[in-house]
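A protein record in our archive is deliberately plain, so that people and models can read it alike. The tokens are whole numbers drawn from a learned vocabulary of local backbone shapes. For reference, a complete record is included directly beneath this paragraph.
>
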Amino acid sequence: MMKKTKKGNLGYIRYEKVKRGLVAALMFAIPLTIFFTGLITTGTRKNLLTVVAILGIIPAARFAVSWIMIMLQKDADPKMAAATEEICPEMVKAYELTVTAYEGRMPLDCVVVYGGSLACYSSRGDRNKFSFMEKHIESILKSNGLTAKAKIFAEERSYLDRIRSMAKAFQAKQAELDEQADLVKQAELAKQAELAKKAETAKHVEQAEYTDQVEQAEYTEQAEQDEQENRTEKTGEGSAVSVRDRKILGVLEAISL
């Protein structure tokens, strides 16, 4: 059994071709089974089951169109996908997306998002439509409350240079966040040591004990505020991936086939 592949992951198009093909076949098999059952049992096509079968063809045709659309797509360029994974292992990225518009569609082999910028590589897209599709993507993001700058590349070198620049900025931000986390941890340990020392010195004095409790409460509150500030830049432990970048990619995946 083929393993399920989510949209944006390598192998998604191959998985969807099989899945949609099987669903379309099943959807056609149901009304055909109903039709032949009525034909065999009544000996004529003029029966109620024929009407049911005809109505069942409508949703089956819809699934067939979906299958045909995905059959027109191709897998991402494996060489560029591997290069993207190597350069941007921890960044927000996706593969095998297809952005559609009334004027046409644009297959995107690889997409990397950082700092509100999208770097997209298309090995088979119409270069004459790059500018339009960039504006189309930006417009859709804007309608979802997100501001971003999209750039589609056809040249491998230009795309790789761009994502290397983005990866360098990402790593610098990551290092800054790691340093901040270390400072917060050191301050927390120093504060705990200080509180422990005070508690040991004033353990027989009720007033001192009360003061320590107040200070502990104030420190806990400050630590929670510091942690909340860190979360505005970090979506996970040790990660500089922003929530906005994930939302941008989520919208792009939502409008893809």
